[in-house]
Amino acid sequence: MKPDFESSENKEDTVTGDVIGDTAYSERFVLKLLLKFANLDTLKDEMKEKSFEEDLCTLWDMTAERDVVLFLQKHDVLNLFCFAWPIIDSPRIVEVLIGIIGNMCCQKEAAEALLKLNNFLPMLLEYAKSEDSLTIIQLLRLINSGFFLAEENITIWIDMFIKVGYSNALYFILKNSSNKELLVTALENFNTICSYCNTGINRTKFFGHFVCSEAITSLAAAFTEIAVKQKNCCDRDELERVLIISLQITLNLVGFDKSYEVLSDNKSDVVNIISIVFSYYENKFVNQKEIDMDLVDIIDSASTIVRVLQIGELCDYEQYCLQSYSMWKTLSSIARFDQNGGSSFENDDKEELQAFSKKMKTSLSVLIFNYLDNCSDENLLKALDLINSNYEDILDLVNDKSLVNAVSNRAANYRTRLKETVNC
C-alpha cells in the first residue's frame, strides 16, 4: 500500500516536490515515520497503535525500490533503528523492522553500512535464537541478502557468526522446527553460507564454526521433515530445490581433510539423504521420462560424498545403487535413439540429448563403482547380480584406474563363476 498524498488540491505540488527519486512515494510520509523512532519517550506508545504497524508495513513494501533505500540511507536510518532498538519489545515490530533492513540489504550501500555497525548486526543475529518463527525467517532472509553483495566483506560476516554462536542457533532451528517455510528458508540460508564462506581465506573459519556432527544431524532432520513428512505440502520446484541444496550443503561439509574424522558417525544420515534424492530422480527420469539437466551435477555430488565418507560400506544396494543402475539402463535406451528412430523422452535436440546421456552415464558408472568398492561382500554379490552382463560396459566408462583395479579385484571371483556358469 502506498501512502496517500495529503490533499487532492496540492497533488501537483506533492508529486513534483515530495516524491522519492523516480517513485510515487512521499518523502514526508517516510520522514514523519522516522521521527517517531527518534523520540524514545513517545515511541513505546506509538508501537501500541495499529496505524504505526501499518505505516511500517507500508515502508517495508516501499523498500523494494532502490530510490527509497537510498533515501533512507541519506537519513541514516540504520543508525536510527539501532538507537531505538533497546526499547522495541513487540515481536511484530521487530519482524517488520528486520524485514525492512533485509530489503535494504538488497542494495550494496545499505549492506555495507550495516556491516559497519559493529554493535547492531550482532544484536540482530541474536534473533536467530528467538522463539518467533516469523522474525527468524526475516533474519535469515536479511543474511542471505547481505551475502549476495558482501564481496570482500565475507570475513566480517563469518566473524560475527562466530561471535554470536550462529551455527548452534541455525542447527537448532533445522533440528527442531516443523514450520515448512522456516525450514526451507533456513536450508537456503545454510546453503548461502556454504557458498560464500567456504571459499578462499575463510575456509578455515568456516570449517571451525560450521563443520561438525551436529551440522549433518540437523540437516538430515530438516531434510526428512520436508522431503518425507511434508512432501505433499511442497510444490515440485520447492521440493526439488530442497533436494538439491541439501546435497550441496553436504558436499560443502565433506570438502575438508578432516571431514571424515568429524562426520564419520553421521554416515547413516547422509545415506538417508542420498537415498531419498535418488529415489525421487529415478522416478522422474525412468518412469516419468523427464530429463533434468541438474542430474549430472547431482550424481557427481553424491559420488564425491560417497567416496569421502565411504558410506557404501553400510549401505544396502537398494539405497542408491539400484536407482543408479535403473537410470543407467534407461540411458542405454537413449543411446539406441538412432536405431529405433525415436525416443520416449521429449527433447527436440538429438545431439544435446546424446551429449547429456553420455555425461550422465559416465557419472553413474563412477558412482556404481564407488559403491562396489566399499560395500559389504553380501551387497557386492547382490549388486553384481543386478548389473550382470552390463558390468563390462560400466567398467569401460570409469577412468579412475585405481578404482577400476580395486573393484575388478573384488569382483574377480564372481565374474569367474559367472563365466563358468554361462559356459556350462
TrEMBL record:
Report one GO cellular component: nucleoplasm
Keyword annotations of the record: Nucleus
Query: May I ask which residue range the UniProt record assigns to the signal sequence?
Result: none
InterPro entries, alphabetized: ARM-type_fold, Synovial_Prolif_Regulator
Compartments in which it is found: Nucleus
Q: SUPFAM superfamilies, alphabetically?
A: ARM repeat (SSF48371)
Q: Which domain of life is it from?
A: Eukaryota
Q: Which family does it belong to?
A: Belongs to the SAAL1 family.
The protein's name is Uncharacterized protein LOC112048894
* Species per Swiss-Prot/TrEMBL record: Bicyclus anynana (Squinting bush brown butterfly)
Lineage runs: Eukaryota, Metazoa, Ecdysozoa, Arthropoda, Hexapoda
